[in-house]
Each structure stands twice: as C-alpha cells, then as structure tokens.
Amino acid sequence: MTDKSPADNFPAGYDVPKVWTWDKSNGGTFASINRPIAGPTKDKALPVGKHPLQLYSLATPNGVKVTIMLEELLAAGHKGAEYDAWPIRIGDGEQFGSGFVDVNPNSKIPALADHAPKDGGAPVRVFESASILTYLAEKFGAFLPSELRARTETLNWLFWQMGSAPFLGGGFGHFYAYAPMKIKYAIDRYAMEVKRQLDVLDRHLAENRFLAGDQYTIADMATWPWYGNLALGQVYGDAGTFLEVQSYEHVQRWTAEIAARPAVKRGRMVNRLSGDPAEQLHERHDASDFETKTQDKIAEKQTA
C-alpha cells in the first residue's frame, strides 16, 4: 500500500508549501476585497443621520437580519427604533475605511452605532449581527423572551445560526457558486453539511411554529435571511434545486410565514443595491422612504 501525502487530495498542479503566502491574483470573485490583514486602508468618515441608531450595512443575509429587526421593532410600536441606514459597498472596499473600522474592527457588515445608549454616555458601537440583534432586543425589551427557558431556547437557536451559516455561505455557497474551479470534494462536503442543517431545522419546525416555540424572536430573524432565502431558491443560482430544498416541508412552511410579514418585506429592501429596482432602498432615513425613494421611484423622477 502506497502512502499518499496531503497534497494528493488537492487539484492537480498545487503543491502545498510549508508556509502559506498571499497570492493576490488567486482570490476568485472576491480577490479585490479579501486579505489576510486587518485595519483601515483609507481615511473615510462615516455619515451620521438624524436618528440615534445609525446602521452601516448591505442587504446580504447578515445585513438583512438587522434591518428586519429594526422594522419589526417599529411595527411593534417602538418609536425609538427609528434609524438611518447607510450602504457599505463591500465590493468597493468601503468596509476598510477608517470610520467603518472604528465601528467594526473586523471590517464586516453590519455595524451599528447607538448615539443614545441606555447609560446616557458616549455612542456605543455594536458589531456582529447576533450581538446587534441581542443589543436591540434588550434595549427595547422585544423579541427576546425574559422567561428563563424561552430566552435560553432563543439564544440556543441564535447561536446555532451563527455557527452554522458559515458552512452555508463561506463553504457551500463559495465552492458551489463562486470558486474559480469546481472541486467535487469541497461541494460534496458542504452540500452534505447544509442538508444536515436543513434536516435539523425541518425536524425542529415540525413541532414548533418558530425556532424558540410559539414566539417569533431574534432567532427567526437571524436564521431566515440565510435558510429562508435558500428555501425560496433565491441564493447561489440553482442551489435550491441542487439541494432539493422543496423536500423540507416544515422549513418551507416557516419560510413562507416569515416572508409574508410586512416588516420582513421592508427589511429586505434596505441597503439593497441590486435586483428589482422597486425593491432597492439604498438609504433609509424615514418610513416614507419605502414609498418615495426606491430606485424605481428615483428613476421615474429623473425621466419625468
């Protein structure tokens, strides 16, 4: 029996070096924005609007979590949740501006600055989507149960999502849709894990209306933009067909119920820079913006 080295498992032509070095030309779709170091690359201050809550984001699954939460808070009557939402064009590297790095040293969207924190002090920065959801839930006393068991179950599923989504996005999505070559081993590995995750959700939702039980919580808001969009067949091209998402009937039921919520429909539009112009609200500063400042309305005014 012949022993094989680890290099034998890689595509032909790649010999694994003893020490990794950064090849800037080998990053595929995201070569221009991925790098192995942190910190700002340029001086650029962030804009600040009229509301205490300032959101710097983009309508990716992680970004949509927070805009859904903010719109749900407003729909529930929490007027203090009014916010300004500013787009961060990650394809242009705006997440590496000095102002954004001050709010999130990890240079990832979303990031939030609360200029009216409960302690009355200086603005509070909040980064990582689960941290933002938890912060807002505690600030407004909403969508995170106070009772021990319900709260714990909500946090169980919130952190399940945070740990699971990288397999869906950075793993399956990257190798299925974005990698410069198709690698069967990588696609098989991550497809298997995503289907296992869908089965986890499907079995749980067979016995529960929402992730934490009967209450709609931040766990649903965190999970839906990833797995709901997958169930709707709206991510990674024909990935829904590849993964047979229609076979997960309880995930489909949960997905449809959340998708029908007016606040979810609005939240999906905020900081969206692509797709149907009627569903793109690049910046959000007032509830009326949904009626007057989507890209289709702006185009109508420009051609009138």
Task: Characterize the overall form.
Answer: globular
Please state roughly what percent of the residues sit in beta strands, choosing from under 5%, 5-15%, 15-25%, 25-35%, 35-45% or over 45%: 5-15%
Rounded Rg: 21 Å
Overall helicity: 40-55%
Write down the secondary-structure element order. Answer: EHEHEEHHHHHHHHH
Distance between the termini: 76 Å
Mean pLDDT: 94
In what order do the strands lie side by side in the largest sheet? 2-1-3-4
Low-confidence stretches: none
Structural class of the secondary structure composition?
Answer: mainly alpha
Question: Could you tell me the number of beta strands?
Answer: 4
Question: Could you give a short account of the major beta sheet?
Answer: 4 strands, mixed
| SS summary, helix count | 11
Kindly describe this structure.
The chain is mainly alpha-helical and 304 residues long. It is built from 11 helices and 4 strands; from the N terminus they run βαβαββααααααααα. It has helices spanning 61-75, 98-103, 129-140, 148-178, 184-205, 218-231, 239-242, 249-259, 262-269, 289-292, 295-303; strands spanning 53-57, 83-87, 111-114, 124-127. β1 (53-57), α1 and β2 form a beta-alpha-beta unit.
